[in-house]
Each structure stands twice: as C-alpha cells, then as structure tokens.
Amino acid sequence: MSNAYTTVIGLEVHVQLATHSKLFCRCSTQFGAEPNTQTCPVCIGMPGTLPVMNRQAYQLALRTAVALNCDIPEFTKWDRKQYYYPDLPKGYQISQYDLPMSDDGFLEIADAKDRFEPKRVRIIRAHLEEDAGKSIHDEAAGKADSEIDLNRTGTPLLEIVSQPDMRSAAEARAYLEEMKLLLTYIGVSDCNMQEGSLRCDANVNLHLDHEGESIATPIVEIKNLNSFRAVERAIEYEAARQYKEWQENSEPPKARQKYLARPKQTRGWDDAAGVTRAQREKEESSDYRYFPDPDLAPVITKGDEVQAVREALPELPAALRERLGEDYGLGTYDADVLVNQGRALVDYYLAVADGSGDPKAACNWVTQDVLRVLKDQESTIDQFGVSAENLAGLVKAIDDGQLPSSRAREAFEVMLADGSAVDAAITKLGIEQVDESALEDLCRELLAANPKIVADVQDGKQQAVGALIGQAKKKNPNADPALVRQICLKLIGEGV
Amino acid sequence: MSLADLTASELLDTLGRGEASAVEAAREYLALIEQRDGDIGSYLRVDAEGALAQAAEVDRKREAGEELGPLAGLPVAVKDVLCDSAGATTCASRMLEQFHPPYDATVVAKLKAADAVLLGRLNMDEFAMGGSTENSAFQVTRNPWDRGRTPGGSSGGSAACVAAGLAPLAVGTDTGGSIRQPAGLCGVVGLKPTYGRVSRYGLVAFASSLDQVGPMARTVRDAALLLEAIAGHDPHDATSLEEPVPQYAATLDKPLEGLRLGVVKEHYGAGLDGEVESAVRAAIAQYESLGAEVREISLPHSKYAVATYYVIAPSEASSNLARYDGVHYGYRTDQTKMVAELAAERKALSDAGDEAGLAQLDTALVRMYRKTRAEGFGPEVKRRIMLGTYALSAGYYDAYYLKALKVRRLIRQDFDAAFEQVDLIASPVTAAPAFKLGEMVDDPLAMYLVDLYTVSANLAGIPGISVPCGFNTAGLPIGLQLLAPPLKEARLLRGAHMYQQATDWHQRRPAFSATPSE
What is the CATH topology of the domain spanning B3-249+261-265+420-504? Predict the structure, then answer.
C-alpha cells in the first residue's frame, strides 16, 4: 500500500514577524488586546491615509531570507492584491507579486529517528505582506452576524513558499519544526501557532504509476491547520482520501481524464472530526488584479547590506548540531534534543560542558535532570535554580571524586532548592570522603553482626550482601555502596 | 477699500501692522460668501463659527505678543478632499456624505499650524474626477465670469471661490490638471507642485501616483505664500520628497535673467481655439519683450498623454476606491430593504425551481457591496472604476497598464530632454475658454480631451502653474500654463510673477450685483 503512490507536499508558511509595530503604521502588534483597540486611520484604511514601511519588519524579513539561503534581489517592490472582504478594509492587501524580496533558498531537514533520509527542501520565495483582520462569524443564533477585529490588520507577515519537495507527513512536520527552530534562533518570530504567528497551508497531491504512465492527482490546498500535529494528520488523511478518490475515478479513461483535469481545490481541515472538507470557492478569487502600490517606494537592498546581515546571523541550528557532534562528541540524538530546546538551553549546556570539562556528563545532566525539572516546573532555562557554573561544579566534583555519584542527585536537589554551589551542598549534606580502613572496620562490624548473610554469600548467594549495603548507609551515609559491597565480598572471601 | 479687495499678501501685511483684525477680515469674507455664493456655489459648507473662533485666537495671540504662523489671520478655503477632523470630508460624494475623518490631512494641519483661518469646504467633481465640477453629488458651481458656464474642475469650487473674491487663498488638488484648468477658466492663479513636494497624507486618493495638492490665489505672490506654508517633507507620506522648502515669496521679485522659454510645437494644432492661441502667443511675446529667448521644442510623446493618463489614473482609482464598500464607514445601502429584496428573489427562483439561478444569487454580503457602490457613487466615478478594473484585469494588464507605464516614462524623458534646452515651457492651459454647463456631460470623451495640455505634467511629476493671460471677446478668462523641471517651483513662480508684473489680467474682477442673490 505504501508503495502504491508517492505523496507530494509543498508548504506555504506565514510567519508573523516580531516587530513592535505594524508593517505600515505605528500600531502595536501585541496579541490579545480588546478587539479594535490597536488600530489607527492607516491600518483601518481611512480615506486619505498612506502606508509607510516599517524598516524593522524589512530587516527581520531580510534576516530570515538570508538564513533560509535565499537570493536577495537588489530591487523589490510592493504590490496591491485586490479582493473584497469585510476584514480587508482597504479592499486590497499590500503584498509582493512578481518581484519578491527574496527567492530560491532551501532548508535542510533530518530525522533523529531515521524515518527519512536527510534532505534539502527548496524554497521558491519568501515575501513580505500585511495581514488582514479577523472575521468572527456568529452563526449560532441563526442571525449570521459577523464581527470584525482589525487589531491584526497590517501586522507584518513573511510568506515562505516551499517547492513540493516533501514526500511524507513526517517530512512536512520536520520542515515546520526546523523552520520554527530557525526562526526562533534568529529571533524574527515567536512562532506561536495558537496566537497565529506561525500559520501553514499544505499543498498535497499524489504521484503514482498507472499502467506504466506517471499520474499526478489534482493538487489540494489544505487550510485551517492549527498545529504541527494537525499538519501531519491532515496530510495523512488527505493522501489516503486522494488515493481512494483516484481509485474511484481511474476507470474508465474518460472519468480518469476528467478527474485529472480538475483544477486545484481548497479543503479545510476539521481537527475534531479528523477530516478535510471542500471549502466554498471565494468570489472572483482568480483575478487579484495585482499592480505596483503607488504609495510606496521600491526597496533597494545592496549586496553589502545582505553580506552584513549574513555576517550578523547567529549560529543556526544545523551548524550548532554539527558543532555539538564534532567539538563535544555528542551523538545526533543528544545534539538534537539540546538544539531543539532553543539557543538558551544550548548556551546553558555549553557553559556546563566547558566549565566541567566533561561534555558527555554535562549532556546527561542537562538532557535528563535539568529538562525533567524544567518540565515539572513548567519553566524555562533562564528561570532555572542551578546556574550553569554550579552545575559544572557538580559535574567536576563527581569527576574529581569529591562527590560520590551515589549522592550527586541529593546534592543537585539541594543546589536546586537554595541555589548553592556544590561545595555548600556537600557540606550541608555532610558528605565526606570515608577512609577505606574506616569502611573496612564498618564492614567487619556488619559481617560479625550478620552471620546468616555471611553464610548465604558463602553458599553462592552473592546478592545477599545487598542487605548489608543498606545497613552501612544507615550507619554512615557517606559510605559508597559499591565499595561496601566490594569490601564485604572480599572479607567474606578471605573467610573473616 | 475693503479687506476682501486686498491680495492675501497685502492682507497679511495689514493684519501684521494691526490696521485690521483677523476677525474683521473673516467677517468680511463670511459676509461676501453670504451675499455671493448663492449664485456661485463654490462652498459646500461654510464654517463661520470655526473661522471666527480661529480668527479670534489669532488676534488674541497677536495682542499677547505670541509667535504667529506665516498665514496668521489669512482666510483660506479648502477643497473638500483633504481630511479635516473638524467636520465632514465628503469628496462631493454621497459615499462620504456623513464621513467625519478622525484625523487632519498634513496640509490641513500645516494650515492650522500656520494660523490660517479656515472658512469652509469647497465643491469639486466627485472624488476629483472630472473637469467641470458637474460631477459633484451635491451642487453645481458656476463660473463667476459667466454663470451659465463651468468653472472647470475638479477644483472648480476652489477656482470659482477665489475668482469671486470669496477667499483670498484656496487649496486645490491636481491629478490631471484639476488645479490649473479651473484656474485658467476662472482667471486665477493655480499651481500644481512637483509630485512629492506637498504631502498627500490625508488627501483622499484618486490616482496616487499623480495627485498633488497646490495653492490657488489671485496673484503669483499669494500662491507662493500658500505653497511655502503647505510644502515640505512628511514622514507620513513615503512619496514625499526630503528636500528643504525654499523661501518662494522672498525670491519672487528677482526676475529670471536670460530666461529660455520653450514653446511646444505639438501644442498648436487643430482644436486650439483661435482667441486662446492669440492670447498665449501674446503672452509669449510679452516674455520676449522682457528679455526671454523663445525656443521651439518638441514633446513627441505628448499626443499619447491623455490616453496614457486615462489608463493609469482610472487603474489607480479603481484600487483606491475599493475601500468604499459600506462595511466600515461611509454610505451603506438600506439593509432591511436589501435583505427583503434578496429574500424575494430567492423565493421567486425557488418557486420557479431555478437551481442555477439560486446558485448564482448574491450572498447578502455581495449584494450589500453591489448596492452600496451602485447607490453611493456617481456615474463618472463608476465609469473610471470600470475602466481601471478592466485595465488591471488578467489578460489586459500588459496591453493597458504596463504599456501606459512605459509611455509615461517616455513622456517624462521628453521633458528631461526639453529642459536641457529651456528653463520653462509655456503653453495654453486649455484649448478653449470655459464651456457651458451641461455642454459636455453626455460626452465623457470630449471632457477627457480637455486635459490635453495639463496631464503631461502629472505624468512627468513636474510642477506647472496657470496664470491669467487675457480674455476672449465674450469676456471669458484665458490661462497661460508654465511648466518647470522637478522641484523648480521657485523658478516657476519667478517666471509667472515676472509676467504678472508686466500685465494686469490678474487684477480684473468679475461683476457682482450689490444686493444679495436669491
């Protein structure tokens, strides 16, 4: 079944850029304000108003395009995309049509779980545009009233269009996750899907062989994808649906021709029902009558400006993963876990690894203990109670033998609770090195008091010695369990 | 002599010397408007209360020795297309009849900051589309020189108002000649600045790449005074130029030495009225007698200017006017009626079992759009929206809009080349003096051709001025147009002032009966 067809996927991602103000006016872009409170005559399209480009938005778009390996043409312009809708107050959206600010880039994706081969997803173009408002349809009361919130109108969006290079829902998800990670790393967007700052439409169709002929089923654009999970599910659903549809329409040849000639369709994802449904086509959506916006000057971006943006880019996730592998000896999985948590956690890790000189132990502590606590506390690394310096001290203390690994977790808990350094935690827990001869005395004492255990061990039940370890810990919390076990067995062996 | 007989510059001096108060000047103008404007119809709304309050404030400031703006106490009237938060801005359209802008256009804000006294709002062709002011949804404006004739348009209210002495200064806008043409037909001075010289912020857009705001006055000196007050870079307008504003009025009296005056050979062909041609040629001769050298030049693409203009301007207009959809502000069709109508249509289709008809039936939203726009716009506005929508449609864009942009570039290059040989270009403003009201309302194409001499300046973005240069035998004013290279308004004004110093056409006034009309 999985070989019957190939799923071909292209994604259109809309990213809300993290500017303070809108693309063509000074209104705030803050999410969640009372409806229609973040508006001004410009963004609500009052007669006589004019747009003025927000340089910051352009800079963020440029940074993104460069990070996505796009070409940046020297000349770009603004176009009006014209259609009527109540949440589009000017009757047109300012966008970019034939000369976008960037084109021809790529994003590399890989899967730590090896479900697909690493690949390069090509990016056709990335262009800037203003967002429309939000229509809130209240059809429940049967009155079909609609309300419009223009707070979002004019918010800067970067539309990133990929080539149809993805072949599975897993690849599509990986593309989105890598895209989100990249955008977060370069600080251009908060990528919050719930708040709509990252939106995605998927174009899906199937390629299959029919009696030796290559067939491409009609492309379907899926909208209303509100989470990465939804993208995955919708693509899987849609591929199966299209395959079924193909099977129903593949014969006779006339039906097949008719089916294959069908124009691109738009379907909406119903997350609760887990299905896509055909959407009603928008009126006159075919001709947007694009033309250059006469209110805005073209934007000229020189090569040296692009170079400066490129040089100012922070280390990107892909490069960081590579560095963690090469310089810190981390495996793909660990590097992925760290990098996917965001730059702040990676920085924390790097500080622990560098400070302790033990990158592997540092990785274990960060990916296991630190992440567990962060998850439990629902907090982020910048709020974490153990500083990188202190955690490095802990790793070092273990490596130096100053802190028995058996008590390291206790020390960590103390450090987490009061923010202390490892030395203070060691003191507080009364941890001290136990002299081997003192330990031997303790073991002798225990063996003398437990002849039954000695007998069991002599009968070959080595595990019986475990009970002694517990007793030793009670008498001296610093007793190293492994050592206790070793000494006891030795003494019994010697026939003591 | 009454205060209203003074030019703006003279009035400013009189007020400055304390020989009269701003309130007195405002009162005098308000009285004249009361007396005369019933005949003329230049004002859509007069703001007597607001004007007197502003005038009183200027007088108070003067008395208190506070700093005063450059137009302190001067009455100014504004075309009803520039947003003013003090009241309505209608663009002479039903669509915006009840529209009260929440903000001031930059030009209006500058006038207020200059301590001008804003008398009221002037009639115009709806959304500035037209050349006779007959496209106003509200009233007819009459030419003060012949009440049966048009004042021109679209700034017909502004031109008629100044010609009738109902304001010393008026603000107009010019997209294809809408300042210069009515100025020429009403015998006043009207200047269209370089594109980007005056902010368009708050100017309700007709054709964004062509629209400019400019001064209208009785004399070149007054026009210079007003231009200086409204020009300048505006951060709210990305197309406004970041060039300092010269002191136009201060350099005005310096004549242009060695002036090279261009005369365009393509301008004197069939269709040019004989009396207009004589007056313009006489004006050119006047320049020669003032020492100018006259050179014949060619603007080979000027014959395409009107066609080019009537692709570009409606294209932009179709987009700019899309926002008037009845959703957020402005006119909206009667909803109850509309919903009932739609329900009746649905029932009829359903009773007839017409499935196809039902599928085609408008949604309530689409019907609201249709009816709102059908009822809110007048015929000329609709005509241009349709022209522009057509020109921008898929399959036609390249043949119309893109081609027009290319010709526009050629027209601009014609001027660049011409201004290498000459300093100013002289031409008629219109091919004929003011036509009769109603004469061309059924012939839109003939109306479009009225823009023949003026549209090129908008397409090229260069400044142009219209100054009175004579009267025909019927006593109708004739205008002379001067054009200058981009940002050479100072040169343009000096050239025009030179001519006014040597002639007295601008001093003639139309006759008014002494008693109030009606």
Answer: Amidase signature (AS) enzymes (3.90.1300)
